[in-house]
Design brief:
Layout (H helix, E strand, L loop, with lengths): L11 H4 L10 H11 L1 H6 L29 H19 L3 E4 L2 E5 L5 E7 L4 E7 L2 H9 L9 E4 L1 E4 L25 E3 L8 H13 L2 H24 L12
Antiparallel strand pairs: 1-2, 2-3, 3-4, 3-6, 4-5, 6-7
Helix pairs in contact: 4-6
């Protein structure tokens, strides 16, 4: 948790290292939001102070960097969603964040982890987490890929591959699943803003019942499809099986 010093309100410019070269990390972006909402933190009120200009140092959507009286309701809503989810991450006893990564310690004892890429507004499991690899792209004349490089929508979890469904999940608890992996795909809704989708994802991970129930249903469907294919084509599945 990032916080001010007791009841003292520290000037934002004294809390934020403007010379930092890595404002793509949630840890650094959180510092900006905290710096402008110190009074709210001390009073226990919803965060409602948007940073003056520092978000232009970050990889966040440029449309939300600066407040504008003539901005659309949609942009204003995105700002409200960002304030809400950043406060939720900051305040929650179940959420930890470091560098690009978020770890959620669920109420049922399971852990979820993923990285956030603000530039592309995606979450996922990290593929590349070293800044030095970005330089490789520059050296061969290519634009650096959005950092961190992730497998989009994939959420890592503590059960590992070939997991047994946790006992607290109705209908599926205690069952072994064989098409399961050590990450689960949870996609952002088409009509959701990224911060509101992130807020929903974090809540899903905290009480993970729905995550496992959906994963189990998907696993069973995949297993049944594989069984049907093996029965119909014991000598091998033809390339045009979808049309037969």
């Amino acid at each position: 948790m990032v916080s001010g010093n007791g009841k003292e309100i520290i000037p934002p410019e004294d809390m934020i290292d403007h010379n930092d070269t890595n404002f793509s990390q949630i840890e650094k972006i959180m510092t900006i939001f905290v710096a402008y909402n110190q009074a709210n933190i001390q009073q226990g009120t919803p965060w409602d102070n948007w940073p003056d200009w520092e978000l232009c140092l970050t990889a966040m959507n440029p449309d939300v960097h600066f407040e504008d009286e003539g901005e659309s309701d949609g942009i204003r809503a995105v700002r409200e969603h960002w304030l809400a989810v950043m406060q939720f991450i900051h305040d929650s006893e179940h959420i930890e964040f470091n560098d690009y990564a978020i770890t959620v310690n669920g109420v049922h004892g399971n852990t979820f982890n993923f990285a956030i890429c603000f530039q592309t507004e995606m979450w996922g499991t990290p593929i590349m987490t070293k800044d030095g690899l970005q330089e490789c792209f520059k050296d061969i004349g290519l634009d650096p890929i959005p950092f961190p490089h992730i497998t989009p929508s994939e959420i890592g979890h503590s059960l590992g591959p070939l997991w047994v469904c946790p006992e607290h999940v109705p209908e599926y608890g205690g069952e072994q699943f064989y098409c399961s992996e050590d990450s689960i795909c949870i996609s952002k809704g088409t009509d959701d803003t990224f911060p509101s989708a992130l807020y929903s994802l974090l809540n899903l991970c905290i009480d993970d019942t729905k995550i496992w129930a959906n994963a189990c249903a998907s696993d069973l469907e995949m297993h049944n499809n594989m069984h049907r294919m093996n029965e119909n084509w014991p000598g091998g599945i033809p390339e045009d099986w979808e049309y037969q």
